[in-house]
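COMPLEX REQUEST
Ligand: 5'-O-[(L-methionyl)-sulphamoyl]adenosine
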Amino acid sequence: MSKFFVSTPIFYVNDAPHIGHAYTTILADVLSRYHRANGDEVFFLTGLDEHGQKVKQAAEKRGLSPQAHADDLAPRFLNLWKTLDIQYDDFIRTTEPRHKKIVQFVLQQVKENGDIYTDEYEGWYSVAEERFITDTEYGSGQFRDVKKLKEKNYFFKMSKYQQKLIDYIQAHPDFIRPEHRKNEMLGFLRQPLGDLCISRPKARMDWGIEIPFDHDYVTYVWFDALVNYISVPGYGSDDKKFKKWWPADVHLIGKDILTTHCVYWTTMLFSLGLELPKTIFAHGWWLIGETKMSKSLGNVVNPLDLIADYGVDAVRFYLMREMVLGLDANFTLESFIKCYNSDLANDFGNLLNRVSGLIQKNHNGQIPEPGTLTTVEEDIKQQANALPGRVKDLINDYKVQEAVTSVLAFVDVLNKYMEAQAPWKLAKTDMKAANRVLYTAAEGLRIATILLAPVMPEKTAEVLDILGAANTKPVWGQLIPGAVLRAHPALFPRIEVEKA
Ligand code: MSP
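STATUS: Structure written out below.
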């Protein structure tokens, strides 16, 4: 048995959760469920990022304290994760004392290691971006709310670790994935790396974790947020727990927060003398047309609307099936409906309806005896028994989309087998053969269903219940002849496009 520690980014509490946020969290949930099913011990961490200027400003607009504002908004995420069947192991809000204490502990340590210094800095400050921008950036005219600012701040000696980081990335090919993101980071690191300003004077922005060695400053929100990956699994508070879980197996992130994770976070870990996460996996964006889904563009898809219309599992399935991990994907209702109708209604749902319909009609609703398998069934049996290993390998390699399609390919094999054998005809001439075919199709369906369970926990549990096969393993032969099939409505009724 091994352990699997997976994290999502912690989401800005201000943001209304959309499909992009839901995607990362479902992905983490799906990976977690596959690992749990394989007997691994899993720690799945997610949460909310609650400090910083944007939260403060939004709270002020509502006439609330930032904490009250965050408390009011946090349930939007928690409720969505509940609706989406997300089984996280811990949920951190960065305003919790257990996190704040460790951020301060980390700051002390980094300082003791000689990696924090103060400096006076004058430059262009972007209020919207919450950071000083370079002269070139200023010249680009792309930044709103820019003002000249001169202030003393605390800096983290990120530059000190530049070469070490380059060497590390080169020596660990699986550290930054996919490959093109690794190359992007190596390209970025060809330029001299600056140091990182990690404080904000309270006089200007006081919504953050106080710097333990200077009461006039709070911690820069990214330095605070990244620490969640170690504060929750026990760094500085529970050595045994920390030793068990760290390093993380994977930080799942979107491609827009690559630098903060691959450069800020990793150099912070170097300073602390801690191991780096085994993998940082950057997925692409869900696009609407050509543009990223975002609140400011007003083009967000609310997962709750989709769930209300088509059910949780259909949404989870679509997101996992449609996006190749690492690349962008386009969200359209057309592609959602197409994917649903073809994979779930026509293929998976149809196999279930046919198998269970025929067993009800011609076999008194009882799973028939397989009898002696012919080479055709032996081949199917072999494919079924090989599938769990294949899915496991793909999941371990973060190829979720391929894992799902490989199960669907097997469902396709079963549908074609039914078509070729026509057990509805056999039932009139050769009952033994009809029995064999239906057992084989039902048993294949059972194994495919178990392998889709991490993606569609609710519907697959229903299918297994219908087959009288709850809690069975994906190994050929566990479907019990004589077991009575439960009658059921169609689990994946076709979506009529006009209605949608
Ligand atoms: N709070 C920071 C993360 C701190 S982690 C220590 C943050 N939050 S966020 O809410 O803005 O974004 C969280 C994640 O959502 C990012 O990984 C981002 O890539 C992802 N997405 C936001 N919009 C997205 C899409 N349209 N598509 C896919 N994911 C996108 O950044």
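REMARKS: The longest strand covers residues 116-126. The first helix runs from residue 19 to 37.
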